[in-house]
Amino acid sequence: MKLVTKDLLFVVFAAAVLAVVILVSGKETTKKVPHDAAHRATYEVLEKSGSRREAERGCERCHNEKMNPLPANHPPKDRCLFCHKMERAAR
Ligand code: HEC
Ligand code: HEC
């Protein structure tokens, strides 16, 4: 009887872990870098260099304290494109 309870607990635990994993993975809602006029140069750099690191070097030219600032609760902001995906991937 004791063994059965233990097994049941394990199943519940495993299901809970699985549920959390699914919830977290479905939560990729960070905004993409819009494919608009303001970001055209960014897309061009990405396309030419094929390097996200190269492309995100330009972000802070427009996204800083004075222009298009990041929200106050913004997470650590190095590697912008690690979180903000480009709408069109580099080839
Ligand atoms: C030439 C200036 C410029 C550059 C360079 C630039 N941005 Fe922007 N960005 C803007 C402006 C203006 C807006 C607000 C209007 C818009 O959506 O185009 C904006 C909006 C955004 C938004 C919000 C989009 C939304 O849906 O609300 C994100 C995310 C963003 N930029 C990320 C980036 C990242 C990451 C980079 C670097 C790879 C970058 N931007 C480079 C000017 C720029
Ligand atoms: C660790 C992940 C992460 C990194 C790195 C990151 N961001 Fe963000 N950013 C977020 C999250 C999360 C939000 C708020 C929720 C959302 O955008 O959907 C956000 C919000 C923004 C917004 C406001 C979007 C809007 O209109 O609501 C802009 C603009 C932006 N980030 C630009 C940048 C730029 C530029 C960089 C690089 C200098 C950068 N981010 C790096 C995760 C990140």
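^ heme C complex. Residues 2-83 form one domain. The chain has a mean pLDDT of 86.
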